[in-house]
Design brief:
17 helices; Rossmann fold; six-stranded parallel beta sheet; 2 domains; alpha/beta; single chain; seven-stranded parallel beta sheet; about 375 residues; about 50% helix; globular
Length: about 375
Amino acid sequence: MSSGLRIAIVAAEPSGDLLGAGLMRAIKARHPNVSFEGIGGSQMLQEGIDSLEPLESLSVMGLVEVLKHLPRLLKLRKCLVQRWLSNPPDLFIGIDAPDFNLGLETALKAKGIRTLHYVCPTVWAWREKRVKKIKAAVDGLLAILPFEPAFLAKHDVKAIYVGHTLAQSMPIEPDQVTARSVCGLSHDAPVLAILPGSRGSEVSKLLQPFLSAAQKCQKDVEGLQFVIPAANQTLQRLIEEKLIQHGLQASVILQDTQSALAAADVVLCASGTATLEGLLSKRPMVIGYKLHWLTFAIIKWFKLMKIKHYALANIISGKVLAPELIQDDCTPDALAIEVMRFFKDENLRQAVAQRYTDIHREMRVDTDRLIADAVDDVLQPMVNS
C-alpha cells in the first residue's frame, strides 16, 4: 500500500483546505509514497496536491446564490468524473461542499471507485432527505461532531468521529500577548476582532454592518483596536477600501484568523468555521449572517431548518453562548449592543471562556490516527482482493 497509492481529493473553501492538509499529512505518515490530485488551496498545495482548479472556483454557498454558477460547476464536476473514470484513483475523498461532492462521489462509487466524505452534511439540521444521497455516495464518512455517527447509523451510513484537526493544533490557552504583537496591536488596549467571512459573497454582505457596528463600539470603549483577517489578497484590498470609507483604522492581516482571534477580547464574526475557531480560542463571540433574501425565504417557507441555531459554536455548546443575529436582525445597532454586552461584563467573558475551554478539552482526540485508520479501512478490501 505504500507504493503507488493515488488519492483524489476535492475541497471547496479555506476551512476545507485546512482539513485537507491535515488529512494528507495523516495519510502520508502511513503511506509515504502516496500521491494526491484534485482541488485544494494553499495549505493542501504545501502538502503536495496536484490541484487541477483553484479552490476559489468552488467557494459558492446558498440555494439561490449558486444558480448563476451552476453551469460552470456542473461542467467542472463532469470533467472531474470523466478524468477519474478514465484513470481511477484508489480512493476519492470529498471534503465538505456536499452539493458538489456528493454528486461526484455518487458517480465514482457507481463505477467501483471507493469514496469517503469528510465533514458530515448538516442533515441533522436541515434537508434531512440528503442522507439517502450520502448512503448512495460514500463507503464511509468522517464526522467532526461527536453526535453525528449515531445519527447516521440510524440511516445505515457508516461514519466515524475523527474530531477536528483544529482542536488538536490550537492551544488550550491562547497567547494573547504574542498574537497582539503578530497583529501589530497594542498590548494594553482592548481589541475587537472582525471576521466577515472567507468568501467574497459573505464579505460583501457583512463587512458594511460589521464596520458600522465597530464604529458604534469605538465610541463607548476607550482605545478600542480592531483586527480583521482576510482570506486572500483580493479580500484584503476590499477590506482596506471599506475601512477608508468608514474612517476606521484596523490591522488587516492575511490568512491568519487564529492570531486575530487570540489577540481579541471580543469577536464579531460570520457564521461558519470561524465560530469553531473562536470557541477553540476561548473568545466570546457575536455572530452575524446574511443570505440572499430568496434563499432565506425558501428556508423559512419550507421549514428546512430542523434546529434553532446556525453557528457551529452554539451547536457544539448545546446553548447560545454566542448571540446570533441573522438576516434582518443583522444590523449595526443590534450587533453593537451584543458586542458591548461582552465588553462591559468581564464575568460573562470569563464564564464563556471557561465553557469553551471545557469543550476544547472534550474535543481533543487523535484526529490524525482516526483519519488514517478510516482511510485504511476503506482501502482494505482492495488490498485483500
